[in-house]
Amino acid sequence: MLDIKYIRENPDKVKKGIEAKNEKNRIDEVLQLDEERREIIVQVEKLKAIKNSVSSQIPKMKKAGEDTTAVLAEMKEVSNQINGFDTKLRDIEDKLNDMLMLIPNLPHESVPVGKNAEENVVVREWLPEGFSLESDKKFLDHVELGKKLNILDFERGAKISGSGFPVYMAKGATLERALINFMLDFHLNEHSYTEVLPPFLVNRESMKGTGQLPKMAEDMYYIEKDDLYPIPTAEVPITNLHRKEILNENDLPKSYVGYSACFRREAGSYGKEAKGFLRVHQFNKVEMVKLVKPETSYDELENIVSDAEDILKALKIPYRIVLLCTGDLSFSASKCYDIETWSPAENKWLEASSCSNFEDFQARRASIKFRRESQKKPEFVHTLNGSGLATSRLMVSLLENYQTTKGTIEVPEVLRKYTGFSIID
RNA sequence: GGAGAGGUGGGAGAGUGGCUUAAUCCACUGGUUUGCUAAACCAGCGUACCUUUACGGGUACCGGGGGUUCGAAUCCCCCCCUCUCCGCCA
Q1: Rounded mean pLDDT of chain A?
Q2: Quick check: A64 and A123 in contact, CB under 8 A?
Q3: Which nucleotide is nearest to A72 (CA to C1')?
Q4: pLDDT score of A421 more than 80
Q5: Number of domains in chain A
Q6: Tell me, in Å, how far CA of A170 is from C1' of B54?
Q7: What interface predicted TM-score (ipTM) does this complex get?
Q8: CA–C1' distance A90–B74 (Å)?
Q9: Residue A75 sits in which domain range?
Q10: Which of A36, A65, A103, A140 would be a feasible disulfide site paired with A144, CB 3.0-4.6 Å?
Q11: Domain CATH for A127
């Protein structure tokens, strides 16, 4: 969330930022509540100070044999007043907090202003050697390929769970596992991350910490009986690893990479765009998460993007980097690059990764701080994350790009030591 | 799921209604002293919020939330977590 002090001092900047994200701003209400809140605090704390000082006098008076009935009665009245103010204060603070939790993060100044995805900016494009987006070849799409080669079973997935729960079969399952292991190993060996294998169910606090709650509740699965949420991304448990902690300056940056299954309800998004892997309720993802010092976070964002790109270069899958405009930016993000991989069958780019800088937005919600050696007061870290990458979308591009004219799939070179086979037929 | 024990400041640990709005020790930071280091001694030592131009002042926080009381770490109620034993189980 945003700092209430910052909102108080820069209401116009805040309003402008929220509007650029196409969200309604209720900043004037927030400021109103904030003012009421502070007025009450001043009053109630004054009373509490009186209560404390008188209370400490009472035992002394008793000892001296003085009559305390008048003071006691007076203090009873003070206590009642305090209770009244406290109740009122709690109501206001709850209301204020609820509103603050729904205010999105502000876009960074380097983010292009725009209404929606159409105004995103393509930053760069990478194609494997000799590859062309224009092709006369006939491409089967990943659903057809998966069916023909018996490696993906969407129908049976729908039978056992529902639509959007794909089953990987035979070499398809092995390929998926290979992909996950390859990506993890690559980030561990070529980049320096610490591996985390987190819980896939988290509590409400964690979901609030990274910003999925309260706003995105409809898109989250929820296990009512235990008040737990299946994670929509490993970002949630990994970022929350250090919730309510004060780290040392030299502990930073913290760079984590972890695999998890991801669960998303994707409420209201059935139809064409949901074919096969394009929109699923459960998928696998390797996620990178960083906790960094504020002054380094925008450099680190570029690093995360480049770390994700390295995977695609190694796999030789065509991709492009897209800088999201303000209108397409997610609730918690200040700046975000999407990485899109090429689907020759769909003849379009598919989002396979999203790399974001959240600045101190999540850190403030989750209270993740660090202390500079020279300075005493703890500061919020900046948090970032990026998919490195989501296997579902990646699998679409991989299968389609690596299909041969015979309808078989060639396994990318770098994956072969993980799969143990070089062709799927 | 059942029974029991426990959760206090960075760590250890005291504290069962007001001479404690948390003792003491260790760690940490600064200082004094001493050829150097160490030791010793002195001082400081958390987080959040409110207030103040500033120096400063105030309030809250002893797992979380309620309650009793003029006053709660301490008493009462609910919840969470950890540990031990039993049961069940991949």
Answers
A1: 92
A2: no
A3: B70
A4: yes
A5: 2
A6: 73
A7: 0.88
A8: 26
A9: 4-101
A10: A140
A11: 3.30.930.10
